[in-house]
């Protein structure tokens, strides 16, 4: 769904907000570690539980806590790049299944759909079936990226947001928004409260890859980049509170 002006899209009267939530694979493990941490996933699950009745919620989960496609780039003579990307996509299936189990243990109806066919453990991604799950109040966890190599999970999230007519794409990270410079390297870097798609692309800001931003721009799909580690921030983002950075068609003030 498109937006007008600076406000996040409002759903059609009588319908709940449809949200595409992008969660990094790093949310599935402890800081500085790899692999799965069920207690860590449970912290995310608790936040999701509190918003599951407020919005139609589809979640794209990454796999970086297990393996990213680029992690094996130093072994191209042994593991072909396409294969390493498929391995990374399978890692997202593992995270998605873990998140589904956590949500169901909390009483939240959830389904995993994968762009890669792994029918013994989850459903294939079918757009109409996914939308039906959302309409029935189920949380849908989307795994396997797009099913094709060399596509980031950010781009997969933007594409699914477009396909599912999402009202907003929420990118949950460990950084509280978009900065003019890397805040780790420059603690005094300015943070944008709002920035346009065009500015993001022109300044080559790296919070989301360029292809994901282009898809959002074409759909006029607003993006909110926020820090999910702060308790209640997923709820605040779904409620439309001004947290993190909003990426929209036009900012209120130049460079705001």
Primary descriptors:
7 helices; 32% helix; disordered N terminus; globular; 9-stranded mixed sheet; two-stranded antiparallel ribbon; single chain; Carbamate kinase; alpha/beta; 256 residues
Topology:
Blueprint: E1 17-23, H1 38-51, E2 55-61, H2 81-105, E3 110-114, E4 123-124, H3 127-135, E5 139-143, H4 153-163, E6 168-173, E7 178-179, E8 191-192, E9 194-196, H5 197-202, H6 210-219, E10 223-227, H7 233-238, E11 245-248
Parallel strand pairs: 1-2, 1-6, 2-5, 3-4, 3-5, 6-10, 9-11
Antiparallel strand pairs: 7-8, 10-11
Can you describe this structure in just a few lines?
The protein is α/β, with parallel strands linked by helices. The chain has helices at residues 38-51, 81-105, 127-135, 153-163, 197-202, 210-219, 233-238; strands spanning 17-23, 55-61, 110-114, 123-124, 139-143, 168-173, 178-179, 191-192, 194-196, 223-227, 245-248.
**Rg computed from alpha carbons, rounded to a whole number of angstroms:** 17 Å
Distance between the termini: 24 Å
Instruction: Please give the CATH class.
Output: Alpha Beta
Lateral strand order in the biggest sheet? 4-3-5-2-1-6-10-11-9
Q: What does the oligomeric state look like here?
A: single chain
Estimated share of beta-strand residues: 15-25%
Anisotropy-based shape: globular
Task: Characterise this structure.
The chain is α/β, with parallel strands linked by helices. Helix content is 32%, strand content 19%. It is built from seven helices and eleven strands. The protein has helices spanning 38-51, 81-105, 127-135, 153-163, 197-202, 210-219, 233-238; strands spanning 17-23, 55-61, 110-114, 123-124, 139-143, 168-173, 178-179, 191-192, 194-196, 223-227, 245-248. α1 (38-51) packs across α2 and α4 (153-163) runs parallel beside α6 (210-219). The longest helix is centred in the middle third of the chain and has 25 residues, at 81-105. The protein is globular and about 45 Å long. The model is unreliable at 1-7 (pLDDT under 50).
């Amino acid at each position: 769904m498109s937006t007008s002006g600076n406000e996040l899209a409002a759903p059609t009267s009588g319908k709940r907000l449809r949200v595409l939530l992008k969660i990094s694979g790093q949310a599935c493990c402890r800081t500085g570690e790899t692999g799965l941490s069920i207690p860590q996933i449970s912290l995310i699950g608790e936040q999701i539980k509190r918003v599951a009745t407020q919005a139609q919620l589809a979640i794209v989960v990454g796999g970086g806590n297990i393996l990213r496609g680029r992690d094996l780039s130093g072994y191209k003579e042994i593991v072909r790049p396409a294969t390493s990307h498929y391995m990374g996509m399978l890692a997202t299936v593992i995270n998605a299944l873990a998140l589904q189990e956590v949500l169901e243990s909390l009483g939240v109806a959830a389904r995993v759909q994968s762009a890669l066919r792994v029918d013994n453990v989850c459903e294939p991604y079918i757009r109409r079936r996914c939308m039906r799950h959302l309409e029935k109040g189920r949380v849908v966890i989307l795994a396997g990226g797009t099913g094709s190599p060399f596509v980031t999970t950010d781009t997969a999230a933007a594409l699914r947001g477009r396909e599912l007519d999402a009202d907003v794409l929420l990118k949950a990270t460990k950084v509280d928004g978009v900065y003019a410079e890397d805040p780790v390297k420059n603690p005094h870097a300015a943070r944008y409260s709002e920035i346009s798609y065009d500015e993001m692309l022109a300044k080559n800001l790296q919070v989301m890859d360029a292809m994901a931003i282009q898809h959002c721009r074409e759909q006029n799909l607003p993006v909110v980049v926020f820090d999910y580690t702060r308790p209640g921030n997923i709820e605040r983002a779904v409620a439309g509170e001004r947290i993190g950075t909003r990426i929209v068609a036009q900012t209120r003030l130049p460079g705001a």
